[in-house]
Design goal:
Elements: H1 3-11, H2 16-20, H3 23-33, E1 42-44, H4 59-64, H5 74-86, E2 91-93, H6 107-115, E3 122-127, H7 134-142, E4 149-156, H8 160-167, H9 172-188, E5 195-200, H10 209-216, E6 224-229, E7 231-232, E8 245-246, E9 265-267, E10 272-275, E11 290-293, H11 300-317
Parallel strand pairs: 1-2, 1-9, 2-3, 3-4, 4-5, 5-6, 7-8
Antiparallel strand pairs: 9-10, 10-11
The protein binds iron/sulfur cluster (SF4) (2 copies).
One iron/sulfur cluster (SF4) binds next to loops.
Length: 333
């Protein structure tokens, strides 16, 4: 099953979130279902600038490392699209490794270009929703092909103190109000756009799905999937905040086969091309998963060769990229 079909399936079962938040259902979903859902996708990072400073994210460290932060420019975006047209895939994600989609003032134009590609069936992105204001909501509803879009909102707890603790900024009221207003507009327009609200929690906090719905889905939009997350990848030792539970790293002995996410290609806002779109794929000082730059005179074929080399060295010589060695998102191919 591909992601587009999964999205359609979910839209028929609006109460799946109640089930998903039972831990044994979550385990079954992650171990048996998600691991089969690994058809390759592209990531296009519209911006690597973020308006939050989450304690579970590498963004604060990346910013301090001096990485140049910017929105994607037209030239880099057009080259990414050229590459995608040459090697078609059905799914494109705009989720940045670190960054916020709505910071790019050209996000609507770029998203429209992607939605207009007839072979693209599914476009997904994560946002922290702090900039999902009336103007940006209006732009979303103006998009041709909006029904191909699915969005996930990343937020912290259900009150402003928890939000400040986890996201490092006082944005709770904007986030709560924007998510409610967006779900209400979807509800009143009779749309079935699948939206998820991913609530991060500190280790000492419990949040019921009913309370989460009262906070973020006051209109009762049926296709909003609310989930909570209490444990985080330690991002190769980068994350050690006292309020967080960290997931025990997976021993690299279990990483017998290359990770399925090595099939994903990310076009970064600065023109770099990377494998895998997850937050751990790019950490300060490590470029094992970087496979090219759109400004270099590399052909798309040469970039894809580099992708094959990394997978091949993992399969044949057990040379595992540094960031993958203990990554808890690993999925065997
Ligand atoms: S998790 Fe997302 S919102 Fe938070 S700092 Fe990282 S990129 Fe920004
Ligand atoms: S192991 Fe982790 S970092 Fe490596 S490709 Fe898989 S998800 Fe990405």
């Amino acid at each position: 099953m591909n992601r587009a079909s999964l999205r359609k399936l979910f839209s028929h079962f609006p109460l799946l979130d109640e089930l998903y938040n039972l831990s044994f259902i979550k385990n079954i979903y992650q171990r048996f279902f998600l691991s089969n859902l690994t058809e390759p996708q592209y990531y296009i990072e519209l911006s690597n600038v973020c308006n939050a400073e989450c304690v579970f994210c590498s963004y604060p460290a990346i910013r301090k490392s001096g990485k140049k932060l910017s929105n994607i420019n037209d030239e880099i975006f057009d080259r990414s699209i050229e590459f995608i047209k040459q090697h078609k895939r059905q799914t494109v994600s705009l989720t940045p490794t670190t960054g916020e989609v709505f910071i790019d003032p050209q996000w609507q134009k770029h998203l429209q270009t992607i939605l207009d590609l007839d072979f693209v069936e599914y476009v997904h992105f994560y946002t922290n929703a702090a900039l999902l204001n009336g103007q940006n909501r209006k732009k979303l509803f103006q998009l041709r092909g909006f029904e191909k879009v699915s969005m996930s909102f990343s937020t912290g707890g259900i009150d402003k103190i928890t939000y400040r603790l986890l996201f490092g900024k006082d944005l709770f009221h904007e986030v709560k109000s924007n998510i409610n207003a967006f779900l209400s507009e979807l509800h009143h327009r009779g749309l079935k756009i699948r939206v998820s609200v991913d609530i991060k929690l500190p280790k000492d906090q419990i949040c019921s799905i009913a309370d989460a719905k009262r906070t973020y889905n006051q209109c009762g939009y049926k296709y909003a999937f609310i989930k909570t997350r209490k444990a985080f990848d330690n991002l190769s030792g980068l994350i050690a905040h006292s309020s967080l539970d960290v997931i025990k790293p997976i021993s690299s002995r279990r990483h017998q086969r290359p990770c399925a996410y090595l099939n994903d290609i990310r076009f970064a806002a600065n023109g770099e091309v990377w494998l895998c779109g997850c937050v751990i794929s790019e950490l300060p000082g490590n470029e094992d998963l970087k496979i090219g730059h759109l400004n270099d005179l590399q052909t798309s074929q040469e970039i894809l060769e580099r992708q094959k080399d990394i997978s091949g060295r993992w399969s044949h010589d057990r040379i595992i990229p540094h960031n993958c060695q203990e990554c808890t998102w690993y999925v065997a191919r």
